[in-house]
Amino acid sequence: MAGIAPQPGIMDIELYVGGKSHLPGMANVIKLSSNENPFGPSQAAQEAVRRVVHEMHRYPSSDHAELRQAIGETWGLDPERIICGAGSDEVIAFLCQAYAGPGDEVIHTEHGFAMHRISALAAGATPVEVAEQDRVVSVDNILAGCTARTKLVFVANPANPTGTMIGLAELERLAESLPPQALLVIDSAYAEYVEGYDGGAKLATQRDNVVMTRTFSKLYGLGGMRVGWGYGPQAIIDVLQRVRGPFNISGMALTAAEAAIRDTAYVEKCRAENARMRAWLGEALAEHGVSSDASTANFILARFASQAEAEACDIYLQGQGVLVRRTTGYKLPHALRITVGDEASCRRVAHLIGLFKAGAR
Ligand SMILES: *Cc1c(COP(=O)(O)O)cnc(C)c1O
Asked: N6-(pyridoxal phosphate)lysine modification sites (predicted)?
């Protein structure tokens, strides 16, 4: 019987579950579940938005020229080769929509970011999962997973939720060795947290098969505004611009992002504070018998003895008003992802995990 049915693949999508933000009956919850900037958006971004609230009736810029200019100046990139999206999630969706469809394969890695797989399925393409090596992306495994149908390869670097990354030489080797019809997407949502790493910008400048995606949601503290961007070969950006809705980013979000990226002193302060507390938190957890890989991002993947222990710890933390992220959906059931918060939050979560481990022993 004919009926109303969605496109193939859509019902294979498991709904994305964001980090918890509330606990019933509890005020003053410490939220370390969504990798948000613990210091919030810059004052400059807040003031810029206040100055434009009376313009809500106006349609926003459709070419994002001013924001692309600001991004280009900040990172030394050609603004013509930048596309802005409602979060980098939207740029990822554009890439899948434009370059992968039924019969095509989209590679993502074992513990890779959920939106890579979701966007591939939404486009009707076939997601192909490739094993990692001890929670680190393996270029060899990706290359072994490529076929004549591979159209896109997603690598988050640094990766979420593992916090690990591979070097630029490895990314270059991957780009160099991909089959000719495949495009490498370097998801650089956390690139700003890595000293001396350009997120793959140089590769995306020089090669015709590399695109880099970036976001304002993490270091810039604008997750609620939904602004991200992509950078790559002109021909590919021109394609993506065709599938982008003309008014995909609100005027207030554009204004906030432009002010945020120009507030370099604030960005620097947030980056330094994250590095300091990330190191502290990793060591504090290790002292309590909880191991983690050295993180290159703004979170730590804390590994427990078992799934049962990780779940018990999560429940204990919730009872104390602290929210972290379970990573079962990322094939890491024995781990919890903990965002690096401000100093007080880091001390609190480490202290509680210490109490938990002492009790569990
Ligand atoms: C947070 C995150 C994003 C960015 O999401 P936005 O849509 O820009 O908020 C992209 N990739 C990874 C790996 C992330 O963790």
From this structure: 218
